[in-house]
Amino acid sequence: MHWSLFIFFNHDNGRTQIIDLFNQDKYLNAIQTSAPHLLRYLATAFIVNKRRRPQFKDFIKVIQQEQNSYKDPITEFLACVYVNYDFDGAQKKMRECEEVILNDPFLGKRVEESNFSTVPLRDEFLENARLFIFETYCRIHQRIDMAVLAEKLNLNYEEAERWIVNLIRSSKLDAKIDSQTGTVIMEPNHPNVYEQLIDHTKALNGRTYKLVSQLLEHSQAQAAR
Asked: Using CA atoms, how far apart are residues 163 and 146, in angstroms rounded to an integer?
C-alpha cells in the first residue's frame, strides 16, 4: 500500500483509484491497525477529488475514531471542518497542510504530462480545502459576512470576493453577493439526483464485490477442510 503511493499520486486518475482501493475493508483495517500514516494520503485524495464520493462520510467516521491515536495536519483539517465545526482551527490547519504537502515526497510533486501541464497538487488542495470550509460554513449560515468569510478562507477581502464570484459563474455555488451590505446570500440547495444515483450505484457495486469475495473465501476454506 505504501509503495502504491508512487503510482497513485503520479497518475491522472490515481486520486480516484486510491479511494476505491484503500476504502475496502481489508485495506482500511490494515491502515488503522498497522499504517495510520496512510490516512494522510487517503484524506488528501478525498480533498482533491473533484466529485464527492459516497465513501467520504464513512471516512470522516474513521478520522473521528483515529484522531486521538494519530495526528496529522491534513486529517486534523477534516476533523475541524466535519467533526468539530471549528473553522478557526481549520484555517490554521490549512496553513500547516500547505507545508506538509510541499515537504511530502509523494504529494509535493506531480509528473508533467507531455500533452498538457498539470496543476500542482498544493493548488488543487488549497482550492478544494477552501471549498470544504465554505460549503460547511454555508450549511450553518444563510447570510454570511464577506469579511468574516475572507478570514476563514485565508484570503483578503478582494480575493475572497473574486473567489466567490468565480464559484457562482462556474455553477459551483448557488448564491448571490449583496455589495451594499458586503454579504453572501445562500440560495436553497437541491441535490443533483442523477449524481447521487451514480455515486450510490458505485458504492453498491463495491459492497457487492466485497460480499462475493468474502463468500468465495469462506467456500474455499470449507472445501480445504
From this structure: 11
From residue 42, alpha-carbon distances to 48, 73, 196 in Å are: 10, 13, 22
Return the sign of the alpha-carbon dihedral for residues 126, 42, 13, 199: negative
Element of type H or E holding 110: none
Check residue 182 and give left, alpha or beta (phi > 0: left; psi -120 to 50: alpha): left
CA angle 10, 13, 14 (to 5 degrees): 50
pLDDT digits (tens, 9 = 90+) for 98-149: 999 989 988 875 544 433 344 578 888 998 998 888 888 877 777 788 888 8
Return the bridge partners of 186, or none.
175
How many other CB atoms are there within 10 angstroms of residue 83's CB atom? 14
Q: Residue count of the chain, please give it.
A: 225
Global pTM reads 0.71
Q: How would you class 38 by CB atoms within 10 Å of its CB: exposed for 0-12, middle for 13-18, buried for 19 or more?
A: buried
DSSP state of 174: -
* Phi and psi at residue 161, to the nearest 5°: -65, -45
Amino acid at 11: H
Residue partners of 121: CB distance under 8 A and separation at least 6:
9, 44, 48, 101, 107, 108, 110
